[in-house]
Amino acid sequence: MTEHTAPDSPATDSWTLANAKARLSEVIDRAQVGPQIITRHGKPNAVIVSVEEWARKTARKGTLAEFLLASPLRSGDLELERVHDAPHDELPFLGPGALKFTNRSAPATGSSCRTMR
Fold it and tell me: Is the pTM of this model over 0.70?
């Protein structure tokens, strides 16, 4: 990939951001032939492509259902075993009044949060 800097240089696919801004019409014209990479601080940052290329790359190739039905795992002898553990994101219910909060401005008589069991 070569950096486009001079107006008389051959067709290239990489532009600095400043040069792309200054010559946007040319960047768009060249995008009709191939992707144009815009760099910022020397690193690739964006790509400009033609509408036809964008439509080709983003076109749906079927539904999720069709994809799953075409899966080679569908006809395989795949045996799955479900684990019936308790969910890890749930805490056991301690009941009403399980936590007692004390007033921090009161004289210290213990921790500010105690579990009552």
Answer: no
